[in-house]
Amino acid sequence: MEKRDSFVLRHLADVQPEMWWLDSDPLEPEPHSALVGEVGTDLCVIGAGYTGLWTALLAKERDPDRHVVVVEQYETGAGASGRNGGFCSASLTHGFLNGLRRFRDDMPTIERLGRENLDAIEQTIQRYGIECDWERTGELRVALADWQLEEMVEEARQRNEMGDHVEVLSAEQVRGRIHSPTYVGAIFDPDGTALVDPARLVWGLERACLKLGVTIYENSHVEWLEDVDDAMRVHTPYGAVTAQRVALATNVFPSLLRPARKYVVPVYDYVLVTEPLSDAQRESIGWAGREGVSDAGNQFHYYRLTQDGSILWGGYDAIYNFRGKVRREYEFNAQTYATLAAHFLSTFPQLAGIKFTHAWGGAIDTCTRFSPFWGTSHNGKVAYVLGFTGLGVASTRFGAATMLDLLDGLDTERTRLDMVRRRPVPFPPEPLKWIFIRLTQWSIKRADERQGRRNLWLRLLDVLGLGFDS
Ligand SMILES: Cc1cc2nc3c(=O)[nH]c(=O)nc-3n(C[C@H](O)[C@H](O)[C@H](O)COP(=O)(O)OP(=O)(O)OC[C@H]3O[C@@H](n4cnc5c(N)ncnc54)[C@H](O)[C@@H]3O)c2cc1C
Asked: What's this model's pTM, rounded to 2 decimal places?
């Protein structure tokens, strides 16, 4: 191993393969029993992450008399919701530019609905007293190259025309906030992102659901759905739920509706957390505003401070494994941790010697348009939302509200949006899928290295409406 590598790797010597958010947190709720026997309900929600719990909560808020049951295969928050970076962003389209490219006419409405959605999350947290370390600190997207900063100027103009309040910062201004020699500027969004403890948010939503009378079953893998005339039967190993309506909130796990599977692939994303910074280390990097930070490349990092003053550092590599399975063994990736650690140390060379203490990974439900899509089946008795592609902490609430509109047969501002009515282009079968994804990832990496210049493949994808720029 070369010398620089062993210097970097020493920072990883004390890493535990555990999620920082779950490390002996006293707020972790008691487990729920599995479903045994027969249950009848108005609405059965499958999956107890943000999407499922928001669906259950909003359903009860809309109609307190509606009987709602949630069925989860593991435990609440076991999927992406309990293990993410906690960036709660107003964007419903995985970034403004991605949305603008795909849904230009609807963007003013989508942007407004996104801001309203973020405000509604904050109000819900206050209303139910959810302790989730909510901090509306805003987000800095930092430019690491001049071409990225130039693009930000135009982006800021377009976003502010649609009601955002973003500001472009010079190198001096952004380095004044956070001291990194790599920054050449930034776009600052002061109110479009909040930071949150993701596991506490999911647990708080669970408590709010229980308070409103929702029943939650854990350790109950839903095996199949059966159409029984005017209702659906949801089958688990020890029981079944007969429900008037079924909401699928199963994210990256194999959909219970086979036709939906071709739209989503699991892409693994990884995270490191450092030990808490000393006062001297903290002073050396500034960061008094505690903003969430991401960098502007197509392959980007995201990072933030935790409540105890550690740094969470994730992103960059996005690993697709051949055949696209969701597997526990994929949640640890030594190679990616080394890459992340090296990038961390170039961003904050003054923190050399700091220890990383936690490392983990999780699967992201990636679709070809990088933003959620919806569908119904069984004459409108079943609905789903999928494809949040790594930006679902806030948009899952919007996804849930829209899924309920569809299940209730409502015609709303949400259901009229193109992004709700249209589905993404499906992925091809293997091995074409693997080749398609690897070629796209290789091209994106090259574009970052070549001042953003997109090669023929990316330009072809752009023409077909499949290009990624976020
Ligand atoms: C490492 C990582 C970092 C991320 N960082 C961010 C971030 O900072 N900001 C952001 O906005 N987004 C982020 N995301 C994405 C975000 O976490 C997800 O978009 C969001 O949590 C999706 O919520 P969900 O409820 O749809 O899915 P999940 O939380 O995955 O919930 C789905 C649930 O369904 C259950 N389930 C599946 N199939 C069945 C079945 N057959 N029977 C019963 N139950 C079933 C699963 O066990 C799971 O609990 C990140 C994701 C990862 C992996």
From this structure: 0.95
